[in-house]
């Protein structure tokens, strides 16, 4: 694997190798990379988890993390993504981790760029490292994927997490269902009520409402969204034994989920964050050892 751009590019075998390596890192294994690689994290959209998690993972596998402040870079003077990445390659980077607001920004990097590119989120396109850490979280819980019911709830059309997970979970044999207001379904066939979804879900995966990608919708009400689609105490109580709650975060508390349920027994929301470091170590090692 030379880059990580979209879950559409990964085979099930490649996914499982990353999950097994993440499990090894979680069990205390150390990286077998032959040298310290230079990595820069280019975040042109805000991030708390993904950026910090990648930086932690890079340090844990012995990389040298070269600071890059997207908000104070020559991208603000109009430099293209290609020229930015080519410049970092010439300075000596082995890999760049990029988050950008344009869908598939990475297409302009496929020709002429030799540094490895890891997509940390492209607009409303893909978020493959989040998908891999979600898969790892599910795998740790259930030990396999085949036949599980996963219900993805919320802002589907704007969510790169929904798209990456729909791709990867279906490939792995999961029965994926979508629940959202009709106007947020995008190209997905979605349910618009919890009926018939709650009691047999093994995983309820909630999504953040991405107000920053919405055209202003004055009729949107947090209260009415919560009432129709939010995970309330009453709905949580109807979930089956052993079922878990996930959310990529950041969470809009009391909108997608009642605040008190964020750390309830079923919730794996903060475990996902912890798992992300091991998964990103595995992603980085897999890619860097090919160089
Ligand atoms: N889940 C996720 O991508 O979070 P950040 O935006 O904080 O990186």
From TrEMBL:
Amino acids binding carbamoyl phosphate: 49-50, 99, 127, 130, 249-250
Protein name in UniProt: Aspartate carbamoyltransferase
Family: Belongs to the aspartate/ornithine carbamoyltransferase superfamily. ATCase family.
Keyword Transferase: yes
Binding positions for L-aspartate per the UniProt entry: 77, 160, 208
Group of enzyme by EC: transferase
Gene from which this protein is expressed: pyrB
Domain Aspartate/ornithine carbamoyltransferase carbamoyl-P binding: 2-139
Pathway: Pyrimidine metabolism; UMP biosynthesis via de novo pathway; (S)-dihydroorotate from bicarbonate: step 2/3
GO cellular component: cytosol
EC number in record: 2.1.3.2
Catalytic activity of the protein: carbamoyl phosphate + L-aspartate = N-carbamoyl-L-aspartate + phosphate + H(+)
UniProt domain Aspartate/ornithine carbamoyltransferase Asp/Orn-binding: residue ranges: 146-286
């Amino acid at each position: 694997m030379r880059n990580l751009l979209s879950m559409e590019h990964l085979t099930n075998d490649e996914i499982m190798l990353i999950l097994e390596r993440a499990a090894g890192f979680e069990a205390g294994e150390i990286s077998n990379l032959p040298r310290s690689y230079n990595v820069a994290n280019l975040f042109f959209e805000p991030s708390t988890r993904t950026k910090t998690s990648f930086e932690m993972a890079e340090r844990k596998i012995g990389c040298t993390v070269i600071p890059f402040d997207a908000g104070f870079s020559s991208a603000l003077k109009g430099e293209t993504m290609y020229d930015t990445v080519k410049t970092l390659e010439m300075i000596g980077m082995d890999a760049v981790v990029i988050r950008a607001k344009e869908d598939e920004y990475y297409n302009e990097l496929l020709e002429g760029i030799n540094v490895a590119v890891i997509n940390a989120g492209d607009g409303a396109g893909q978020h493959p490292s989040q998908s891999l850490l979600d898969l790892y979280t599910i795998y740790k819980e259930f030990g396999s994927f085949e036949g599980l019911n996963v219900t993805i709830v919320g802002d589907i059309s704007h969510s790169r997490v929904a798209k990456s997970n729909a791709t990867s979970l279906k490939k792995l044999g999961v029965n994926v269902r979508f629940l959202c207001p009709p106007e947020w379904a995008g190209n997905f066939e979605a349910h618009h009520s919890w009926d018939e979804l709650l009691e047999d879900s093994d995983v309820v995966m909630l999504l953040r409402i991405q107000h920053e990608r919405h055209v202003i919708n004055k009729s949107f009400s947090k209260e009415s969204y919560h009432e129709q689609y939010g995970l309330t105490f009453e709905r949580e109580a109807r979930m089956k034994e052993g079922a878990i709650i996930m959310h990529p975060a950041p969470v809009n508390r009391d909108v997608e989920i009642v605040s008190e349920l964020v750390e309830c027994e079923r919730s794996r929301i903060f475990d996902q964050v912890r798992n992300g470091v091991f998964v990103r170590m595995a992603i980085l090692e897999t890619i860097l050892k090919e160089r």
